[in-house]
Design a protein that fits this description.
Layout lengths: L4 E7 L5 H14 L4 E5 L5 H11 L8 H25 L3 E5 L2 H11 L4 H12 L6 E6 L2 H10 L13 H17 L4 E5 L4 H15 L1
The protein binds thymidine-5'-phosphate.
Length: 208
Amino acid sequence: MEKGLFLTIEGGEGAGKTTLIAELARSLHEQGKNVWTTREPGGIPIAEQIRGVILDKGNTAMDARTEALLYAAARRQHLVEKVMPALSRGDIVICDRFIDSSLAYQGYARGLGIEEVRSINQFAIDDMMPDLTFWLDISPEAGLARINSAEEREINRLDLEGLAFHRAVQEGYRKLLADEPNRIIRINAEQPPKTVLNDVLSILKQRF
Ligand code: TMP
């Protein structure tokens, strides 16, 4: 079976994932590739419904383990319904967040433990790991300043967390990078969007 390419884009709030994904997809399209862009949690109706529950600002009673399980449930459905069929056709899938978000946010920043969260996610993904992951690294101060200046952006439950939480998310990603330096590539997301795109394109060219 021909296998496509599974790319994931990670990072804290305001890192510029959405902009990068749109530009990267356009550029790969121009090179004649079949590219799908999608996001987590969400990307398909069932997972978008789960997203609504997780990110609802009214759900202040949500337990951290419940939250981690809901992300994993949304991930499973999205993988089976959307990502795996595209990869089996040989297409490229660019996903806005994947397992590393759960490891950094729930495992590290929420304190559930990276290995504990990895194990519930292993049940959900069944070894279906990304071929390559770009971590858009930006200081939490700069990232939060960007989202606060973007008026049209909706504020969700996780945006309401304080700076200490977002610092812990960044630290979580640092640990993941140290563990898997071959799969995870750190990109300096404080650079202009065009430079970020060019960095990603040149790494893809080297690797594939
Ligand atoms: P977004 O703002 O990038 O769309 O992501 C929604 C929020 O969900 C964001 O604050 C990060 C968070 N998140 C987790 O905490 N764990 C996860 O596994 C995923 C996919 C997202």
